[in-house]
Specification:
This protein is an alpha/beta fold and 415 residues long. Helix content is 33%, strand content 19%. The protein has two domains: 242 residues, Peroxisomal Thiolase, Chain A, domain 1 (3-Layer(aba) Sandwich); 147 residues, Thiolase/Chalcone synthase (Peroxisomal Thiolase, Chain A, domain 1), CATH 3.40.47.10.
Length: 415
């Protein structure tokens, strides 16, 4: 006789930790988003004049020594420091004590784009100026993309399946998608999301090769997605770490549905140089189908918003194709932070969950003059009050990575 298969539960987000140019907690970040308070600052002292990047999003006032064990600091890069700080926030927010849970039933899945470039550059400089004996023994692990996943796992004794996704800006959604798979397969809790800290000269040189970073010197002329003057995005650092659990597990410990449920996810890859609307539209439809959600049920789309004229056109046309002309409010809070690479999509997910909690769609806090042939309902000027029960987050990574996530205010009762 065939065994009865256990129904797969819907994952929910029960904790959020944020470390971003707009704040060092989810509430601080969210209030900055609603107020249109930017974390974009001049980069003169950080980058110097040779790199042609004048503006970016830097995390303000973050002191790793105040938040992390001293022994970890020389072993890890700033990007890992940011993630460890956000993970501690998320676990506390979820009311989870990892030491009380079976170690093999907890997992970690994070996203990284640049890895530990600041640490790596420092050690390479020591190698070439002082010799190999001056290079830190931790160079072999601190730069590595999986270092953040490993350090969170070690710190909290999480010995279940642990992964890292390296898909540039799309990686945050891909990490959450993998966390969803693990939860459906029986893992009790997954810490997921991502951070990045890519402002070392070594990292900036690599970023500049994509040709999409704005060289504007005034903040009001930089990072203008879907604008007729769009000239590229601004880089940023930070991100978000989430605690995800199966809905039944969360309800059993009286956490309810937390901030909301992960209803659907899909990913694809576009090999064309600038992307094509059919690829993104297909990913959006697959994510909606996965969520068993109709396009007209979606209350907001958090756009990828590259602010490159070609990429913006691709995204605008795909949104219009799936949701109809001006069929859904579209927003892009990342104009306040810059694109955070491995951390950016996870921060958008955090923002979408807050939009559902508070019944408000944040506006694009930039002086956007919409390109005349874009037929999307971009929220401008001020936040828009409305019930948000279902949200879609879009993320695209350089090179063709494409992902979409569907979030709901509640998990289905059976899940």
């Amino acid at each position: 006789m065939a065994t009865q298969q256990r129904p797969r539960e819907t994952p929910v987000v029960t904790g959020i930790g944020v470390v971003a140019p707009t704040g060092l907690s989810i509430e601080e970040h969210w209030q900055a988003v609603l107020a249109g308070k930017s974390g974009i600052v001049p980069l003169d002292e950080r980058c110097g004049p040779d790199y042609q990047v004048r503006l970016g999003g830097l995390v303000p006032g973050f002191d790793a020594t105040a938040h992390l064990p001293g022994r970890l600091l020389p072993q890890t890069d700033r990007w890992t420091h940011l993630a460890l700080y956000a993970a501690a926030q998320a676990l506390d927010d979820a009311g989870v004590r990892p030491q009380d849970l079976p170690e093999y039933e907890m997992a970690v899945v994070t996203s990284s784009s640049s890895g530990g470039t600041e640490f790596g550059q420092r050690e390479m400089q020591r190698l070439y100026s002082e010799g190999p004996s001056w290079v830190s023994a931790y160079q072999s692990i601190a730069w590595f993309y999986a270092a953040t996943t490993g350090q969170i796992s070690i710190r909290y004794g999480m010995r279940g399946p642990c992964d890292v996704l390296c898909c540039e800006q799309a990686g945050g959604l891909d990490a959450i998608g993998q966390a969803r798979r693990l939860l459906r397969d029986g893992t009790r809790l997954v810490v997921t999301g991502g951070t990045d800290a890519a402002f070392s000269p070594y990292s900036l040189v690599a970023q500049l090769t994509n040709g999409q970073i704005s060289r504007a010197e005034r903040a009001e002329e930089a990072y203008l997605p879907f604008d007729e003057r769009a000239s590229g995005y601004l880089p940023g650092e930070g991100g978000a770490i989430l605690v995800t659990e199966a809905a039944g597990t969360a309800r059993a410990r009286d956490a309810g549905d937390g901030y909301g449920a992960i209803l659907g996810y899909a990913a694809g890859f576009d090999r064309s140089r600038h992307g094509r609307p059919p690829v993104l539209a297909r990913v959006l439809r697959r994510a909606l189908d996965d969520a068993r959600c109709r396009a007209e049920q979606v209350d907001v789309v958090f756009a990828d918003a590259v602010a490159d004229p070609v990429q913006d056109r691709v995204e605008a046309e795909a949104i219009t194709e799936v949701f109809g002309p001006r069929g859904v409010p579209v927003t892009a809070p990342k104009t306040l932070t810059g694109r955070l690479y491995g951390g950016g999509a996870a921060l958008d997910v955090a923002g979408a969950l807050m939009a559902m909690r508070d019944g408000v769609v944040p506006h694009v806090a930039a002086p956007v003059r919409m390109a005349p042939d874009y037929d999307i309902d971009l929220v401008l000027g001020e936040p828009r009050q409305r019930a948000v029960r279902t949200a879609v987050v879009i993320a695209r990574g350089h090179g063709g990575f494409t992902a979409a996530l569907v979030l709901g205010a509640r998990a289905p009762e059976h899940g």
